[in-house]
Design a protein that fits this description.
Elements (H helix, E strand, L loop, with lengths): L3 H23 L4 H13 L4 H13 L7 H18 L1
Helix pairs in contact: 2-3, 2-4
Length: 86
């Protein structure tokens, strides 16, 4: 006989998975979006939300190694430009 908690475990796991998927798609940009965001930030100021996304992208993106060199060099350029803006 299954307890009520055992029957809700798959539902809870699915809900967590869906929430994580939403965060990955909406809060942490994928590598291509992050690179585009950095390039945009070099040209014009970014919103606080976009800055936050970039701050955590490299730490949280499981695939970042594929574009790490390009992302890192662009991010350094962006940080220099953003610091000049004040």
């Amino acid at each position: 006989m299954k307890s009520a908690s055992n029957s809700s475990q798959p539902e809870a796991k699915a809900a967590r998975s869906k929430a994580l998927e939403w965060v990955c798609e909406n809060v942490i940009p994928n590598c291509d979006k992050a690179i585009a965001l950095v390039e945009k930030g070099i040209e014009e100021p970014l919103t606080s939300g976009n800055k936050l996304s970039l701050k955590y992208h490299k730490r949280l993106c499981p695939f970042c190694g594929c574009n790490e060199g390009k992302f890192t060099s662009l991010l350094e350029r962006y940080k220099a430009v953003d610091a000049e803006r004040g």
